[in-house]
Amino acid sequence: MHTPGVGCRTFFSLLQTHTPSQLFAESTPALSALGLKSEIIHAIKNPDWATIELDLSWLEQKNNCIITFNDINYPSQLKEIADPPPVLFVRGNPDLLSLPQIAIVGSRNPSSIGEETAFNFAKTLSHYGFVITSGLALGIDAASHRGALDAKGYTVAVAGTGLDRVYPARHKELATEIVNTGVMISEFPTGTTAKANHFPRRNRIISGLCLGLLVVEAARQSGSLITARMALEQNREVFAIPGSIHNPLARGCNALIREGAKLVETTQDIFEELNQFYQQDEKLLPAITQSTLDLEQQTLLNHIMFSPTSIDTMVENTGESVEIISSMLLILELQGYLEATAGGCYMRIK
């Protein structure tokens, strides 16, 4: 992991003919005969002992360990992908990596309804015994981790840096919560900072660990869609929550659905595909509560779409005055039925 130029494929190729100790004992001509470039040979013959000592020091800390590809704790799901990481750095409970996992990914800048949706899906899926896996990023990732934690469930955070640091830094407290009850993993050794090319590599681990991957909100060009397509290549189930054609954050999900992802409106849609991995408990299903709205409020709500709706449209459709509608909008917003959007519009959220 500290040898520049040695990726997963080269690593596994070398281990087919050599143990690590044999490899380090080989002569320079013998290493060259293996097809290794001069800079790789130099790194093998001159190990960076300072960084290796950092790894060893990190390993001595509580809750930290390393899992190699041949360890019994290495997750079987991850072994199935084309380029599994040879080594996983782990903080927390490594046993969770072998439990059934659902990954949830999406925009780093989601709408409030998108964030709430990710949180609620993660919470419900956790109730049914699934481990929630994501990438500790801002937005949908963080909401998913928090939903699992709120349910007293388990969550896996896959990092794009070494585990001696947290990226983004504002998620240090969240990372601590995850380590205390769940697990953080990375293929990157200590001292590794965040770099753009690390995150696609991280994403293949997220999709590789899971049975199914849920995309909550994503633009047409986003890392979440890359992760979803990795999941399809890895023969994982891919789920997507649809959205308004006017919402740019829904276009990625809508595109995935057109390409064959399963359209998801409730967790039951996921259970239909993964029903062999959970036991349904009716006591865990959300209770259906009686509406507290009066007839006028309910009528107005029925005219508000799950996409931005202007007050002028509400006036036209209901025949009520702006003053009466504004009063009812305040009540509906306070009760969590809708939210205000840009341009003086409102959008229904439940």
Show the helix and strand layout.
Elements lengths: L7 H8 L4 H6 L2 H6 L4 H8 L3 H11 L4 E5 L7 H4 L7 E6 L8 E5 L6 H16 L3 E4 L5 H11 L4 E4 L13 H10 L1 E4 L11 H12 L2 E4 L7 H11 L3 E4 L10 H8 L3 E2 L3 H8 L20 H8 L6 E2 H8 L3 H13 L3 E4 L3 E4 L2
Parallel strand pairs: 3-4, 3-7, 4-5, 5-6, 7-8, 8-9
Antiparallel strand pairs: 1-2, 2-6, 10-12, 11-12
Helix pairs in contact: 7-8, 8-9, 10-11, 14-16
**End-to-end separation:** 48 Å
Poorly predicted runs of 5 or more residues: 280-291
| Sheet with the most strands, sense and barrel status | 9 strands, mixed
Question: Biggest sheet: strands side by side, in what order?
Answer: 1-2-6-5-4-3-7-8-9
Average pLDDT, all residues: 86
Q: Class by helix and strand content?
A: alpha/beta
Please compute the radius of gyration using only Cα atoms.
24 Å
Summarize the structure.
The chain has helices at 8-15, 20-25, 28-33, 38-45, 49-59, 76-79, 112-127, 140-150, 172-181, 198-209, 223-233, 251-258, 267-274, 295-302, 311-318, 322-334; strands at 64-68, 87-92, 101-105, 131-134, 155-158, 183-186, 212-215, 237-240, 262-263, 309-310, 338-341, 345-348. By secondary structure, the chain is an alpha/beta fold. The strands form two sheets. Strands 1-2-6-5-4-3-7-8-9 form a nine-stranded mixed sheet, sandwiched between helices. The protein has a three-stranded antiparallel sheet with strand order 10-12-11.
Overview of this protein structure:
The protein is an alpha/beta fold and 350 residues long. 42% of the residues lie in helices and 14% in strands. The protein is built from 16 helices and twelve strands. It has helices at 8-15, 20-25, 28-33, 38-45, 49-59, 76-79, 112-127, 140-150, 172-181, 198-209, 223-233, 251-258, 267-274, 295-302, 311-318, 322-334, and strands at residues 64-68, 87-92, 101-105, 131-134, 155-158, 183-186, 212-215, 237-240, 262-263, 309-310, 338-341, 345-348. It has a nine-stranded mixed β-sheet, with helices on both faces. It has a three-stranded antiparallel β-sheet with strand order 10-12-11. Helix 11 links the parallel strand 7 and strand 8. The chain starts with 7 loop residues before the first helix and ends with a strand. Mean pLDDT is 86; it is low at 280-291.
